[in-house]
Every structure is written in C-alpha cells, then in structure tokens.
Amino acid sequence: MAKGLSLAVTNLKYIVGKKSILDIDKLSVNSGEIVAVMGANGAGKTSLFRILGLIQKPSAGDIFIGGKLINNTKKAFEARQEITMLFQAPVLLNSYSVYDNVAYPLKIRGYNKDRIMEIIWPLLEHFRIDNLAKEKAWSVSGGEARRITLARALSFEPKILLLDEPFTFIDEWDKRQITKSFFSLARKKEVTVLFVTHQKEEAISMADRLLFINRGKIIQQDSPHMVINKPKTEFIANFLDSIALLEGKTIKSDNGLTKISVNGCFLYSTDKQNDNTEVSMMLKPQDVILGKQALKSSARNSVKGKVVKITDKSSYVEVNLDCGFNLAAHISRAALEELCIKEGEDIVAGFKAGAVHLIPKGND
User: Which domain holds residue 73?
Assistant: First the structure.
C-alpha cells in the first residue's frame, strides 16, 4: 500500500468577479499529515478544498500533488484518481445496498468480487455498519449515512482525503468514538488528510497541525500546542474560548518585560510589543493562582479582586473574579476547600508574565 501524497500550493489566488476569495502565498502538507482547517463561514475553506481537489481551477498559482506540478488537464485527471472529497451532507446511491455503496469506488475501478469483499467487509465492521450491509441506502439514518460515506472514503485507499465537517449527522454519543476510530485508521493507512471542523476538541486531539483561514488568507498554521499557547489573532484566541482575553494598552517594553495598562491596573508580559499599542491579552485560567493575601511566588503579576462566581466543572473548579476587569482561574477542589474561597469575598490573583500573550488589536 502506497503512502499518502504530499500537497502544496504557491501564490494561489481565486477571484470571483472583483472579489478575492483566496489569496494564499504558500501552503504545504506533508505525506501522511493530518491537518485541521478552521475559519468562519465564508472564510474560503470550501473554495480551497475544491481547488485542492482539482475540481475548481484557481485564478492564479501552482498546485503540486506528490511533488508534481499539476499544470494541464491530463495531469489533473490522473492526480484526481488519488483524491477523495467528502462534503457536509452525506451523498448515497439510494437504490444501492449499503455494501454496494461502500464498494462502488472499487467496482468502477475494476476490482474483482473477492478482492472487493476482502477490502470492504473490514471497513463495514470498523464503522459498525456490517449489520446494514444488505439494507438499501434510502432506509438508513443520518448518522448511519455518514458512517457509510466515511467507510467509502477509505475504500479504495486514496492518497489524499479532503473532508468538509466529516462528523456532522453523527450523534454526540457516538461522535467521539467514530472520530477517533476514523483518524486511527487514516493514520494506519498513512493517508494525507485535511478536514474542516468547527470543533475545538476535535481539531486539537486529532490533527498534527491546525490551519486557520480568515478572509481568504492563512492567518496561522502551527501545531496544536503552539496555537494554544501563542494564537496570532483574536479570532483564533476566541476559537479556543477557554482563554481569557483582556483589553489593554502597552506602556513600555524594557528588560524583557512589556508593561500594559488594563483599566488602570498595570500588568506585565514577556511578549515584546511596540509602546502605546492597543492589545488583547491572552491568559489561560489554569495559569492563574489564588490566595487570600499577597502571594509569595515568582508570579510577576498580582491583582486584587472579588469572587463573583464559583462553578464546579467536574475535573476542576472555575472561579470568576472582578478585578476591574473579568478574570477566571481554574483550581482544584482541594485548593478551593483549603483556601475557603466563597462568592463575594476579596481575593488575590497572581500569574507569571510569561503566561500573558499579547495580540495587537486589529490583527485579524
């Protein structure tokens, strides 16, 4: 079985009328890599997938599949045989059985009956639709239809998979198991995968790299760890939504620290920014420590606040504070009990300068 193919574009532009839909200087996906693609509706994700899938010509730019430049119709046709695209709504051959739907790509490629059975049956079992093999496709549920299309997407062992929100229509009870199972199989087959998702947990847990698109441009493409710790824009930070965003203005950068004014309170970050710059400050709640008195720690930032809400989140407790600005801390139940924290009480919050990430305002 051949490994997945690499995929790359350079100087890619796609223009409709006078409107620029895509403007991407460079995008490269390694063989066997799994990349989650994210962005708001209308950001250009579907147009990018149609171009990468070689069903839509770009206005300008080069496309490389497996390192080969795709610059004519013949090369595009040949490369397209190695690519499977899966769109949001499951598309089935309703008059065919479930088995024949999954087997269809192999039948049109001339595989014999025994070889088809050898490939297809393990896929039916893997996606738990083997009991539906003889049923007509029109009779299955939406979640079952999605499982069928996922199995079919892998049936002829494509080198590249382009998936647009592939796990919609699957109920939440099954989604985690099906998602994990699908990507486990894709990794085993070493398929190159790009998938669109709006689910943070799905992207972070399944992808090797996260790619964010906004207004047709790639605004960040990094490992999940890097994106979580150093998002480049407010849009990305908001997508991560477990992160506090504070509005402030830089005062001065000196000796490796940037001083920021936030509602009359001075805070510090190790991120360097120009003076007098409007910024959003990103701070993860798990980086905030709490105490009843001035904190004796290496935390450079220490602010007084009032506890406005305490919420049990099962694996941790979220404590929301009013410090002249909203601040949240995630602590253990043991810490909550030890400190005897109660709503309405005064408290001190501390966090290191290195935990504060600065994003210039308007950096979309």
Answer: 5-238
